[in-house]
Amino acid sequence: MRRLISLLATAATLAAAPTLAQDLTAITGGRVLTGTSVIENGTVVIQNGRIVSVGTGAAPSGARVIDAQGAVVTPGLVAVDAGLGASEISSVGGSDDLSNSANTISASFDVSYGLDPWSFTLPVARLGGITRAVVIPNHPGSGGGDGHSHHVDDSDFAGVGSAGLQSPSLFAGQASVIHLAAGTDILVRPRIAMVAPFGEAGAGIAGGARGAQFVQFKETLAEVRLYARNRAAYDRAAVRDLSLSRADLEALIPVANGDMPLIVTVRRAADILQVLRLADEEDIDLILDGADEGWLVASQIAAADVPVLLNPIDNLPGSLETRAARMENAAVLNAAGVVIAIKGNGVHRAREARFNAGNAVSHGLPFEAAIAALTVNPARIFGMGGQFGELRAGAAADVVVWDGDPLEPLSSVTAQFINGQEQTLNSRQILLRDRYRNGGRPAGGLPLAYGN
After folding, report:
1. Would 429 be classed as within a structural domain?
2. d(Cα 111, Cα 177) in Å, to the nearest integer?
3. Cα(170)–Cα(174) distance, rounded to whole angstroms?
4. pLDDT score, position 432
5. Prediction pTM value
6. 51 beta partners
7. What φ, ψ does residue 171 adopt, rounded to 5°?
8. Could you tell me if 399 and 51 are in contact, meaning their C-beta atoms sit under 8 angstroms apart?
């Protein structure tokens, strides 16, 4: 019991630690990577949670000054397809709120209600320079925030459920944006995008063939539009039976109207082309997730003005739909003009997104494009450009100071601000290391695990 109380107290300390914010702060002398440009010997001024200015001038009078001479200053990194704050241990169901199997709640599944600001995963991600995250529901076939395998098994699919509703549905639920600052309210914006699997996973849901999924998807959108035009008739039971619950139909109206982007997990080049055609036919706003073979159809993705969330180190075929995966995927897509965002490796390894970006640079992606793929691009992809992910006047003061190249694994964060509040550079792992680094035995006493 004492050990449980100790762990809970540690979580509370990490989430509710007092911030170290100053009213006016200037970070001076560093190599400033704004997300869109590079400023040598730059100065970033922060006040009231916002960036006041970015340039080469001196620090304002009366400002607290952080000397970043010889350091690198970047916007806070933005994790995409991350389960941060919504999953603690994927194998412990009660701590994982990233997926849902109820056939009456699919598209309407909202991950924002399961967010935990006391999650141990958040301080660890902060130590990797992450200040914001897009939390995306998991589904069969996804890389997912929880880092599940891409492999699709027949046991993932249950066919038609009770009352004739889709079970599982073609839709996994709605994503949210969070910030990682210590405190009790991490939600920035809920219901920012809808999520759906295509390719092998989507085929399995629809009955085993890709063609079946596309027909079912189009029919589902037709039902959503029918419902939206006839809500009153639906209430009187004067509309034919529909394949989704009312909650799911309501949730999909913004997708059908083109007001909410649809994140589509798709990997094979042929599937990508079919999804692009589908989006054009249905006039929906699309974001590709995965796109392992995207380099084969980079020009078509760029022509459709569709962004891509990808992991550039997915280069070995785990199935036939990724047989052409290669490490140059990010570089080829970027060169074609596709806006890309680089993902990490799951909840507990979200901080590795910067390592993945470094690998992409070693395979042809320009350094500046890699920084953009971790910062400004994710914000723009999800309709929040200028609000975070970029060092510019008026943006949220999410600023990270590094002791070296942020894409170099040995570089560390030396100072970090989220919404202008300086964050403690600590985590449960560091606290446990410090507690037990000397064997955990105070002079003449029991190991600390048995103490208070």
Report:
1. no
2. 10
3. 13
4. 81
5. 0.87
6. 46
7. -115, 135
8. yes
**Cβ atoms of residues 262 and 221 within 8 Å:** no
Q: Name which of 30, 22, 66 is nearest 47 in CA terms.
A: 22
User: How far out from the chain centre does Cα 124 lie?
Assistant: 15
Give the structural domain span for 201: 77-388
Q: What residue has token string 């066919």?
A: 159
**Average pLDDT of the chain to the nearest whole number:** 87
Token digits of residue 418: 């989220």
In a domain, 411, yes or no: no
CATH number, domain with residue 94? 3.20.20.140
- The pLDDT tens digits for 25-77 are 999 999 999 999 999 999 999 999 999 999 998 999 999 999 999 999 999 99
- Both structure tokens of 428: 């449960």
Total count of domains within the chain: 1
**Residue whose token pair is 């709640």:** 105
* 14 is a domain residue: no
Please give the C-alpha separations between residue 353 and each of 57, 255, 306, 356, 357, in angstroms, as whole numbers: 32, 29, 21, 5, 6
pLDDT at position 167 is: 55
Residue 165 inside a domain? The answer is: yes
Cβ–Cβ contacts within 10 Å for residue 328, how many? 15
- The residue whose two tokens read 């999804």 is 275
